[in-house]
What does this fold into?
Amino acid sequence: MRTSLEPIAVIGMGCRFSGEASSPESFWDMLLKGRSAHGKVPSSRYEASAWYHPSHERKGAINHDSGFFLAEDPSLFDAPFFSITAKEAAGMDPAQRLLLEVAYEAFENGGVPMETLLGSSTAVYSGCMTNDYELLSTRDLLDMPHNSATGNGRAMLANRLSWFFDLRGLSVMTDTACSSSLTALHLATQALRAGECNMALLTGANLILHPNYTQKLSYMHMLSADAVADGDAIRAIIGATGINQDGRTPGITMPNQEAQADLIRRVYDYDPESMKKTAYLEAHGTGTAIGDPAELAAIGDTLGAARTPENEPLYVGSVKGNIGHTEGAAGVASLIKVVLCLEHAMLVPNAGFEKVNPRIRLDEWRLRLCQDATPWPAHMPQRASINSFGFGGSNAHAVIESASEFFGSPHKYAPPE
It folds into this structure.
């Protein structure tokens, strides 16, 4: 891997994931125990029984009546705390409201005094691909909120954070479908290394509030029915990142195995020695008949192929069994999982794993699925890769190292006091 890249430190995190995973600590507990937050669609979202039909082909229907949903009510929000009136908050996408809360927690988690953010060149990058709330809030044009444009504009997922915290750096919303937030990570690291900002806030958002988009995915067979100088507490180090595109494939939603493999090689600077020192890969893991074999074949052609007989196989996992497919937020969910695994020097089980797709040749590709909580291989660097791809062909890949690995000495993360 390129040694000239300036390392980027991860100093703080916050999250709201499915079930009770409402903080990095509770999320780690879920990961370690291999729990899944899968459950019935809450009636507060929509009445799933009215939309359900087992066939993918039934137009206007959804082929499942369950999914992954927050335990807390996303409509709850302390508007005055964020200098927002009750009327304005009612017209805001709940994803905007949640990002305000989680961003505040991430800054606190990183020990960043709020007053130091004011007027700073801190950038904001948000990944998102859907906006269910706009469908709900604009169904009756006579009753449409007066602030619908700012309340539902996806650019506001980043811009609202920049406004509230008075951040003067770049403020960008990316949509490359499911790879949105890992693409945002790449753009953020590029901006930091180019000196365009002194700190970057990376976010991803996805809320299922209406069955419309789920119907589309069901019909398309995309749903399965089953900082050292500042004295910051550094949680992990972001190494090389990269993005590319599949180009022309038999169908726009069909992944390109070779394009994904090319991206991995480029991120690792075409260095097999560096590739074989990565112990774990957090896969996109769509759970689809085409997506998983293509992704794992690309991983096998690169990171797997770099392994010698003396090396044990590359461990592979995906967070989607725990919290579902968070769509535009999938990349940042994978990042938080990987940082927690590196901090605890543990590999966690794949929740809900039952059997391997027969098209996936794990032994041949030198890959191993994580089935139990396992200590990080003692003879391997604490380094992991994250892979992500969108259904329109946009791919992203990132390499993450533990702070201990980077500093060459034990570096236990301790939350700021």
Notes: The chain has a mean pLDDT of 88. The two ends are 35 Å apart (CA to CA). The CA atoms of residues 93 and 133 lie 6 Å apart.
